[in-house]
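As practice, study what follows.
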Amino acid sequence: MFDQVRREIGGLDIFVSNARPELAASYRPPIDVDLDHWRAALDSQAQAFLLGCQASAKLLPEGGSIIAISYSPSGRTGSWQPWVAMGAAKAAMDALARYFAVAPGPRGIAVNVVSPGATDDSVVSRLPSEVSKAIRAWHESGWTPMRRVGTPADIGNAVTLLCMDEASFISGQTLHVDGGASIMDSVFPLEIQRG
């Protein structure tokens, strides 16, 4: 793909890593995940981002942007047991984004992560139906302060924001695009938090 871009266009201004395998194949708890599903998750996320960063950095001009679409809670929680393979792969992507923010930084290339929360027409809609419905109901009931799940446009707008010249000094950061869900405290019931 990068060779074709080089031949036909000559270079890139922006690289967005948004690979997503079919989640159902990897949706297994830690005790049941096998090496094939583990490798598929890591290959489709962390390895794809590693290789994409390496290849795109050679095609990006001064001031270019690299953005990973991730799910950053994967690096700090372990409660969503069937997400173990994808969660570990997403956590690795987040770490890689920080390393790559340093590597091409002297060329003014910014590397950031956009971390969507529950979003329509995303991995959430491909989960088992009862899981998808429970996620939507949870967010609409108040876990997300904005009381809705995100839209693809919400995520696209965040990517656009990070690609603007005005955001060129933002690098190595994770932008949570989740309607405030990531700031909620899991220790206290919602009725106490919302006062």
